[in-house]
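Tokens for chain A. Residues wanted.
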């Protein structure tokens, strides 16, 4: 019943006075529905409410950025990436355009593993290490004499297919994948904490040996895949080099990957969908009720609301985005 009718009807006034809870219920529905008398949007769609939503979203986003600094490893990205699938998807892409398949090379794989371990140890995410070490230094260090070489990097992806798709969608990474200059490839799938987040780094190193006779055989490829195993993960171990200096090696272990308490990939999607779904439902309810009751005049602008919502969701996705390549 409209408020104007209530104010003119003594019986109604008497009823509302005797039933204050009913009045509270009557007023409560206008948090979700547009007000027919005041001709305004629902309270939960007001400018103040939208501002509160934005502040809450940015607060959650800020916590996701702050927690890793205080409690490293609590937040992370769950993944199911393995060398066998990475090799398969890489060669599938090459076969589609008529290129020969790349052979999995042990020395390139070792170089890729050492590069991944180095990024975790020195906490960086780049082709060139803070001390100036380049990808080619890892390749040459492991005795791979090349004519051509290249590197693709990825982190925070959930599957091997997603990694390859991201590389393929990037012109510079696709050039490596589909280059005729390469005959061999090496992969590393390494788990650890980078910048406070539990994550999986993927390193792909390409090469063409100086001597064609050095190209990996099918036997070598099978041996590498058998050694790594899709249910195994690579873990760094301390070792001593022949000259007495420190050396970093990588061995496989059948232990399960340590999972972060909160998967940021799932968290970002959940927050975005929950927030967008809630406000989107309110807008849909607003349109439906307005047509049903013939409410023509409202305060605020739907376009402005939607634009603000999109910007907030994009901000969430930018700060907590899964899947990054360089």
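Reply:
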């Amino acid at each position: 019943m409209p408020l104007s009718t209530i104010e003119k009807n003594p019986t109604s006034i008497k009823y509302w006075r005797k039933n204050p809870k009913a009045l509270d219920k009557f007023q409560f529905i206008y948090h979700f529905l547009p007000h027919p008398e005041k001709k305004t949007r629902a309270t939960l769609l007001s400018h103040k409410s939208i501002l509160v939503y934005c502040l809450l979203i940015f607060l959650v986003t800020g916590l996701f950025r702050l927690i890793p600094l205080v409690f490293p490893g609590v937040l992370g990205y769950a993944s199911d990436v393995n060398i066998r699938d990475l090799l398969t998807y890489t060669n599938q892409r090459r076969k589609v355009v008529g290129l020969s398949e790349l052979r999995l090379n042990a020395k390139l794989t070792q170089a890729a593993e050492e590069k991944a371990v180095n990024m975790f140890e020195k906490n960086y995410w780049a082709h060139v290490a803070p001390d100036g070490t380049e990808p080619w230094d890892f390749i040459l260090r492991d005795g791979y004499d090349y004519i051509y070489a290249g590197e693709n990097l990825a982190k925070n992806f959930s599957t091997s297919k997603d990694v390859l798709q991201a590389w393929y969608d990037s012109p510079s990474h696709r050039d490596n994948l589909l280059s005729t200059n390469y005959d061999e490839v090496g992969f590393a799938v390494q788990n650890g904490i980078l910048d406070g987040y539990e994550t999986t780094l993927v390193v792909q190193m390409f090469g063409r040996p100086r001597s064609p006779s050095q190209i990996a055989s099918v036997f070598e490829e099978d041996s590498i895949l058998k050694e790594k195993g899709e249910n195994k993960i690579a873990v760094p171990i301390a070792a001593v080099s022949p000259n007495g200096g420190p050396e970093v090696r990588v061995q496989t272990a059948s232990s399960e990957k340590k999972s972060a308490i909160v998967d940021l990939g799932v968290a970002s999607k959940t927050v975005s969908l929950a927030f967008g779904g809630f406000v989107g439902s309110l807008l849909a309810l607003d349109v439906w009720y307005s047509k049903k009751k013939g409410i023509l005049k409202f305060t605020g602008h739907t376009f402005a609301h939607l634009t603000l919502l999109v910007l907030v969701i994009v901000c969430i996705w930018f700060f907590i985005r899964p899947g990054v390549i360089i």
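Residues 33 and 289 are 7 Å apart (CA to CA). The chain is about 50% helix and 20% strand.
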